[in-house]
Design brief:
By secondary structure, this protein is of the alpha/beta class. The protein is built from eight helices and 13 strands. It binds zinc ion (ZN) (2 copies).
């Protein structure tokens, strides 16, 4: 686990034959009120738990898991992690929470072919991703997470309930899979995706001042160039109709 600031820690994903999302731990460790952002791919939970422990953080300090969205590469090992943190609450955008609570896994797999492939590969049964969600976010909330303040921004397009977390004082953005380093953006062909929504989400993120970009995959960026997200949005605009 790598320290980004006094209140933001980074656990890099370990891509296998499928990508594994990064996870982040938010909050001042002394608050004992920490949040884990995203889980990761199936089988990629235990090294993340170990890396939190190795950093000297008591697991009992992790009070909740906040999902940027619920694609398989982010939610795959959620059950694995919740087994280690049975007290932790689960927070996410209401649109994806409602699907999960009903046992509707279209948003997890994104497409039918991928569902069949994953169920074979991992021996998953239908209903493997049914979860009760403790807090359903709308976007627009201001969360106090372990003595740090984060704004929730609903940024649909990559998935219907994608959220970003923004720490205004230090200009830190956790955009899930909406925007990455190297002007890449999340795919917009899966269930619940919408290209024109994604364009609007990028444009709204472009209004934020961002110094540190902590995406769901690939490089994290410290010292993000000014106008980076707007430039990314402009580059992708022709494809996002
Ligand atoms: Zn995704
Ligand atoms: Zn992802």
């Amino acid at each position: 686990m790598l320290k980004i600031t006094e209140e933001v820690f980074y656990i890099p994903g370990q891509d296998a034959f499928m990508p594994d999302s990064h996870a982040y731990v938010l909050g001042k460790p002394t608050s004992e009120d920490l949040s884990l952002v995203d889980a990761g791919l199936l089988g990629k939970g235990s090294y993340k738990i170990q890396s939190i422990q190795k950093a000297g953080i008591e697991l009992s300090s992790i009070k909740r898991i906040i999902m940027t969205h619920t694609h398989l590469d982010h939610i795959g090992c959620l059950a694995e992690i919740l087994k280690q943190l049975p007290w932790a609450e689960l927070w996410m955008h209401h649109s994806e929470a409602d699907l999960l609570e009903q046992g509707d896994e279209r948003g997890v797999y994104g497409m039918d072919m991928f569902r069949v492939l994953c169920q074979l590969q991992f021996g998953l049964k239908a209903g493997a991703f049914k979860f009760q969600v403790n807090r359903k976010l709308q976007g627009g909330e201001t969360l106090d997470l372990g003595n740090t303040v984060w704004e929730v921004i609903h940024i649909p397009g990559h998935s219907m309930g994608s959220i970003g977390l923004y720490h205004r004082p230090m200009k830190i953005l956790i955009p899930g899979d909406v925007v990455y380093s190297d002007h890449a953006i999340g795919r917009f062909d899966l269930y619940g995706a919408d290209a024109s929504e994604l364009r609007k989400s990028l444009v709204s993120l472009a209004e934020l001042e961002v110094d540190i970009l902590l995406p769901g995959h690939n490089q994290i960026v410290e010292g993000l160039p000014k106008g980076y997200i707007l430039k990314t949005a402009r580059q992708w605009e022709p494809y996002l109709k």
